[in-house]
Design brief:
Blueprint: E1 9-14, H1 20-31, E2 34-36, H2 46-51, H3 53-77, E3 82-85, H4 88-101, H5 107-121, E4 129-134, H6 137-147, H7 157-172, E5 179-183, H8 193-207
Parallel strand pairs: 1-3, 1-4, 2-3, 4-5
Helix pairs in contact: 3-4, 3-5, 4-5, 4-7
Length: about 210
């Protein structure tokens, strides 16, 4: 079996509004890969969280962690290449610690959450390719405004900047597996064919397909 036919687990990571869902959809259409999207539309905690972050932070993060863990288990058992919208690592290294740092998740809840992550992480392997969509705050804001989700209107620029800083720290120390960084500020893979071809070539090279 050649590399083209071996099922792979690909994760697209990045801040809120970086372009993960758009890239997932385009890659799915181009390569015929399946996509496991982040649970946002059917997430029972998301709107409550944006209205009262302190009250719902732990509930929301456990929901996301569990959802992504279930996705990874199914991906590893399946026979198809799958793109996962966000990774289990981001719950543990970006969002939960940021909420804890902001005083929106208690020390007790954060420690409980991180122990749960460590247990889950010990049962799974890193993805075959981690794609990080790097984006500045202005780019994030533009994308967020374009998609018009009401519950995201209350997000502050400071919140997005804090998340960006944590993303940079995490990516700089990412050693779990294969990593590809794409800059959303410099690439318009939706409207520019040359940018899209660049993305395709980089991903094909990283996966050796």
């Amino acid at each position: 079996m050649n590399q083209q036919n071996i099922p792979k687990h690909i994760v697209i990571s990045g801040n809120i509004g970086a372009g993960k869902t758009t890239l997932s959809e385009k890659l799915s259409n181009h390569f015929g890969w399946e996509v496991n999207y982040e649970s946002t539309d059917d997430n029972p905690y998301l709107e409550d969280f944006y209205n009262d972050m302190g009250r719902w932070s732990f509930n929301l993060q456990v929901y996301f962690l569990n959802s992504r863990y279930e996705q990874v288990l199914k991906i590893k058992k399946g026979a198809n290449t799958v793109i996962q919208d966000r990774s289990i690592y981001e719950d543990a290294h970006i969002f939960a610690p940021n909420l804890h740092h902001m005083g929106l998740m208690s020390e007790r809840d954060f420690e409980n959450f991180f122990k749960l992550f460590q247990l889950m992480n010990s049962q799974i392997k890193a993805p075959d390719l981690m794609i990080y969509l790097k984006a500045s705050v202005p780019t994030l804001v533009r994308h967020i405004q374009q998609r018009g989700r009401t519950y995201e209107n209350s997000m502050s620029l400071n919140y997005l900047q804090l998340l960006n800083e944590r993303y940079e720290e995490w990516i700089n120390g990412y050693k779990e597996g294969n990593l590809l960084i794409l800059n959303s500020d410099e690439l318009d893979f939706v409207n520019k064919k040359e940018d899209w071809n660049h993305v395709i070539n980089k991903i094909s090279e990283a996966l050796k397909i």
